[in-house]
Amino acid sequence: MIDPSEQESEDKDKHLSNLSWLNDELENYFRNTVIPQLFVDADFILRKFTPPAMKHFNLSSADVGRHISDVSHNIRYPTIVENITEVIESKQDLEKEIQTTDLRWYQMNVLPYIVQKENKSNGVIITFVDITDRIEILKRYERLNLNYENIFYSVSHDLKGPLANIEGLIKLLEEVPNIKKGAEDAKSIIKVLNLSVGNLRKTIEELTTEVYIGDEDSLFAEAEERISLEKIVEDVQLALKDKISRTDARTTTEFNVSEIKFSKKNIRSTIYNLVSNAIKYKAPDRVPEILIKTEKVNDYVLLSVKDNGRGIEEDKQEVIFSRYTRLTDDDDVEGTGVGLFIVKRMVESGGGKIEVESSLGKGSTFKVYLKD
């Protein structure tokens, strides 16, 4: 007959042996895994960590036995204690993408370490997988996609200038005396031109509307080059020649800075939109007067476009840079309400910013700060 005390002692030895074996297995796993992992008990004490965790977070053997909050500065993730608490209390896995204070991105998994007999969490195992490269690749694809959007935006808007010039020329042709007297061939050509221009404008508007449905996160900065702001303004004035002529708009310039390193396409589209808007939203009782000025302001080149137009109501000055925002419902003012939205994106893509100062009935000044 087996002595009960001997049986108890034998069971205890087996239990200790099993614990020792499990501990050796855990040690072996922690020693050989290539993934940074931490084992934190229910009292928030760091019990174990893998060698990669030592490399990534500068942990040492002296950190074992310390409260996790005392070593959280090494891990460089400020809400780790809150996340551990959430997992211990809920007994549910937590997975999230985090960025540590050294700007590395990780996929963090916090898993509850559950004691089955007691059905309670005795701590957590935290795994960090470095996904910085993956995040950067996704960002590059995102910026590339937005770059293509920007190209489309600028092309669709810049086409409207020459299109308006063609429409103006057609109107002039219609006033030619010989055509008035009945040159049927010329009338037929003008009719076809009118039809073609109308179809082209409709196509641009439809394509623009479809593409504008996309997301509006950060932009991809186009290749920069040293460009002459005076030359860009001359190009814009030429593109808007018909609108300037029809409204008798007076444009003056004051260049205290004549060159800047920026995307040529983006700065041209920016100036085009701002000058076009200054004419489009002219006051009904006065000739448009537009001042285009550049100057150095701290680390920026300030490009300002000032007009004497209708002005913008104070409660609309923040929303005018949003997509599909129009300042008027008047039928005589064309546009889709995306021009300033595009301008803002293009300016910010180059590290700049845009602001507006306006008084209703007196005019507006758009200030574009471009990184020098």
Summarize the helices and strands and which ones pair or pack:
Blueprint (H helix, E strand, L loop, with lengths): L3 H29 L4 E5 L4 E4 L1 H7 L10 H8 L4 H11 L3 E6 L5 E11 L4 E11 L1 H27 L1 H15 L2 H5 L2 H28 L13 E4 H11 L1 H7 L2 E6 L3 E4 L1 H17 L8 E9 L2 E8 L31 H11 L3 E7 L3 E9 L1
Parallel strand pairs: 7-9
Antiparallel strand pairs: 1-2, 1-5, 3-4, 4-5, 6-8, 9-10, 10-12, 11-12
Helix pairs in contact: 5-8, 5-11, 5-12, 6-8, 9-11, 11-12
Structure description:
The protein is of the alpha+beta class and 372 residues long. The protein has 2 domains: 13-130, PAS domain (Beta-Lactamase, 2-Layer Sandwich), CATH 3.30.450.20; 137-371, Histidine kinase-like ATPase, C-terminal domain (Heat Shock Protein 90), CATH 3.30.565.10. The protein has helices at 4-32, 51-57, 68-75, 80-90, 132-158, 160-174, 177-181, 184-211, 229-239, 241-247, 264-280, 339-349; strands at residues 37-41, 46-49, 94-99, 105-115, 120-130, 225-228, 250-255, 259-262, 289-297, 300-307, 353-359, 363-371. The protein has a 5-stranded antiparallel beta sheet, with helices on both faces. The longest helix is centred in the N-terminal third of the chain and has 29 residues, at 4-32. The chain starts with a helix and ends with a strand. Mean pLDDT is 77; it is low at 209-221.
